[in-house]
Amino acid sequence: MTEHSVEIRVVSRLAEIGQSAWDACACPETQTGAPAIDPFTTYRFMSALEESGSIGPGTGWQAQYLTATLAGQVIAVAPMYAKSHSQGEYVFDHNWAHAFERAGGRYYPKLQIAVPHTPATGRRFLIRPGFEDAGFSALVQGAVQLTQNNALSSLHVTFCTPDEAERGRQVGLLVRKGQQFHWRNDGYADFDEFLSSLNSRKRKNLRKERAQAQAFGGTIQTFTGDDLQPEHWDAFWTFYQDTGARKWGTPYLTRRFFDIAQETLRDDMALVLAERNGRWVAGALNFIGVDALYGRYWGCIEHHACLHFELCYYQAIDLAIARGLSTVEAGAQGEHKLARGYMPTPTWSLHYMRDAGFANAVEDYLQAERDAVDEEIEILTDYGPFKRIQVEEQE
Asked: Bridge partners of 286?
């Protein structure tokens, strides 16, 4: 077997690949009945984005799914898109775009290997077990070749795994380091045991916030699986629209995405809702992985003190402890998460710039940025809420 025998193909619809072939690469663990490690790269999640119109014409995310086939068998796939903007990526390259265009170039369209609208770390080069080297090489070479052949400015692989970042570096891709805030489960039996790991002042603050939030005059419930009902999505859609309009101008996901999610993704989701005076007033949506909980969206129609912290962060910790999950990924940005036990954690992306001069400038920038991120993580870790002995153990 040689990599020259691998056929690279680009298709615009997941159905052209098929669920069996896609999931054999994206979540091979499900072939034996196990749950998917990462819900976001499964066929059901990716197809929900596509079928709901959350990607596709008019969204700036045009699917260009990359496949590698050997002897008639799909051995690797990548969720790749032609992008006409940089929204919904959460790894910001707006300054690169402005610099490239000021120099007379055309930055868009570009190629993006990513899960749209989802700043969660996971595999981006999805490879059937047993074909790791051939599959990775074929996908990287194929994506770079497509960038060159179509005279595109760049290729970006966002929120990849540390292993993928290192393999990409070894084949000449540029590596970018960022950070998010993640909560780590140190084998806590319950929320009180987690609180006992914090210093006294932070512990008191968290208890006070939870008490304030839970005194909002209603009840908080978590729904997952068959307990999720259309009425819950009707309420959450209102919350999501409000948040989306304020943050992005237009919500990224369509209403139909949640209808499809109700049918195909309900076991992968945990929806936390607050009810007051007979109506839902706030909610937070999480996705469930094998060992991680992913906080994704929040919204409300009434403001109550600390309710955002309770629904997004503390309820997520409760759920992770109850399910024995090791991590809560709380999404992009937000240093306010630090005081609530969410610690700075590196994230990674890979980049290829077709223009050599521009690539050199970006490489210099990325080196300085990596140094700055390392320093920021170190400083923020020192400001974390944990007792000093625990911080030293984490370091």
From this structure: 270, 295
Q: Comparing C-alpha atoms, which of 201, 383, 194, 212 is closest to residue 308?
A: 212
Helices (H), 280-333: 307-309, 315-323
Distance CA 268, CA 294 (A): 10
Longest dimension (CA), the chain: 66
Model confidence pTM above 0.90: yes
Determine the Cα–Cα distance for residues 395 and 383; give it in Å rounded to an integer.
13
| Tally of CB atoms within 10 A around 308 | 18
Tally of CB atoms within 10 A around 272 = 25
Q: 101-154: per-residue pLDDT in tens?
A: 999 999 999 999 999 999 999 999 999 999 999 999 999 999 999 999 999 999
Any residues with CB less than 8 A from the CB of 2 and at least 6 apart, and which? none
Query: Each residue of 22-43: pLDDT tens digit?
Result: 999 999 999 899 999 999 999 9
Strands 279-288 and 7-11 turn out to be: unpaired
Q: Cβ distance 232 to 266 under 8 Å?
A: no
Listed range (29-33, 48-52, 311-315) with the worst mean pLDDT:
29-33
- Residues 275/219, Cβ–Cβ less than 8 Å: yes
With tokens 């292993």, the residue in question is: 163
